[in-house]
Structure formats: C-alpha cells, structure tokens
Amino acid sequence: QVQLVESGGGLVQPGGSLRLSCAASGMRFSINAMGWYRQAPGKQRELVATITIGGSTTYVDSAKGRFIISRDNAKNTVYLEMNSLKPEDTAVYYCNVVDGRYFTYWGQGTQVTVSS
Question: Which helix (H) or strand (E) covers residue 68, if one does?
Fold first, then answer.
C-alpha cells in the first residue's frame, strides 16, 4: 500500500522559512514526478511546484524565487524549501506523487501558517 508521509509544516512569522518533506513508501512502480500542492480556506487546491525524475522543475508564479523543490530519488523523498514566506502562503500543503503508470497519490496534508 502506497503511503506518503509529510512533515515540516507549522507556524512561522512573515519573512521566515520552512522546509517540507514527503517520503513515499510501498511504491510498486517507479516514480515519475513528485510535487506539492496547497489549498487555502475557501480556495481551490493549486499546484505549488513539481519535479520530474530527471530533475526538471515547475513552479507557480507566486513561488518563483522563494521556494525550491528537490528530491532524493534513492529515498523516494521530495522536499520543498520555502523562504520569504508571506501570509498568503498560509494553506494546507499536500504532497503529490505520480508513478510510472501515471497513477496519482496524495499525502494527508500538512498545515503551514504564516502569521505574526
């Protein structure tokens, strides 16, 4: 059974930093891409960043220059380093994994709150 375990969320002041981690286990097929989405109260879930097995990355415009996505293929783990955090970054952040069959898996979500 595939499990995605997220960690690293929490409360941080504006301008601060957080690092999210997501470890995938139970994968029967190779991982194609990994990424992070977020959902703020009353809003739709949106893509934050993705990274392919080859290391190609994409970011939502609001994250460019502030967030960095990376992965450790040997550990099936994806990271999201978030810097210069703003109150509008407050959301539940979800890990996303797409395997070689293009099946999609989701983590349980981790809360990120940016507030003074």
Answer: strand 67-72
The whole-number pLDDT of residue 51 equals: 97
Residue type, 5: V
Report which of 25, 50, 22, 20 is spatially closest to residue 111, judged by C-alpha positions: 20
In this prediction, residue 93 has a pLDDT band, given cuts at 50, 70 and 90, of very high
Which residues 6+ apart lie within 8 Å of 44 measured at CB? none
Cα–Cα distance, 75 to 47 (Å, whole number): 23
CA distances from 112 to 10, 15, 16, 30, 42 (A): 5, 13, 12, 29, 16
